[in-house]
Amino acid sequence: MKLAIEEAWKYQLLTYPNPAVGATVVRNNNVLSVEAHQNAGNPHAEVLALKSAYLSTYPNSDLKDITNSHEIHNYLISNHNNYFLDCDIYVTLEPCNHIGKTPACAFLLERVGIKKVYIGSLDPNAEASGGKQYLEGCNIEVEVDILKKETDKLLYPFFKYQSGHFCLFKIAMREDGTIDGGYITTQDSLNLVHEIRTKIDLMVMGGNTIRTDRPTLDSRYSKEKKSPDILIYSHKKEFDKKIPLFDVLNREVTISDSFKNIKKKNFVMIEGGYQFLKILLNEIDYLMVFISHKKNLKNFFSIDESIFSIEYSYYINEYDEILYLKKINDK
Length: 331
Hints:
By secondary structure, the chain is of the alpha/beta class. It has helices spanning 2-9, 45-57, 69-79, 105-111, 131-137, 148-163, 187-197, 207-213, 274-279; strands at residues 22-27, 30-36, 87-93, 116-121, 141-143, 166-174, 202-206, 230-233, 253-256, 267-271, 286-292, 308-315, 320-327.
């Protein structure tokens, strides 16, 4: 389950409006595969994990070229040849029992003959829940609440999506807490930020930052290339329209000295520095910190643990660490 959790965090926020979910397939205590749901509408974690496990034994199978979720389901159901009879699967979230953009994972697990299913968190979404009961009804052994505290942490943004509003503040810094002087982290981190930008409904920036940095704020390093609408928070409404962000096609740019419209958007990302974070502290749910360890500085920034708790952290590469923090007063 720990491996499934680690894999799922790599895709946190990228699966919007779906939750981040990881899965591990095991046979006789040997790990066959570890996968995660990567994008809404694409195969779920269980499907990818079953596919990877199968390909670990049959690497030249036609399955390797199949990416559509329905087609993967159909292939595995028709060609599993009892491959999974002695396999267990660990899933951070209860397998879905709902046919939507993708088929029901609980049905697939039953049809391929999985031996046992270990579940971290039960699905809070009534429409997709019921996988546990379905599997048990098929005489498949199910065990729940495996590392539940950790798997529940993965679901926090999803709970906020479901409530109608989730606000993320993103900041990049060196390990001593300094944030000045242009790009701080590596291209890997920049790529991830651009991928997240393709998912959000609104991006918020401060007017002083726009005037000083003259950014584009697009998603050119993402696969989808969908650039977000922008809210520039500023008491002064005049901006040089030659600033690149104003030339990006298919986007709406709003200049306002109010944050009242933020809560009308489902997924909002704010980018800025310490002062902007202080101004918007009451508006945000989550803090995403990119930390560069490239220079091995002597001092290390500290987190105000009366305001934020660290939900998870990992290194995206040799130098860049990503921290996800939740406000203490958020449920």
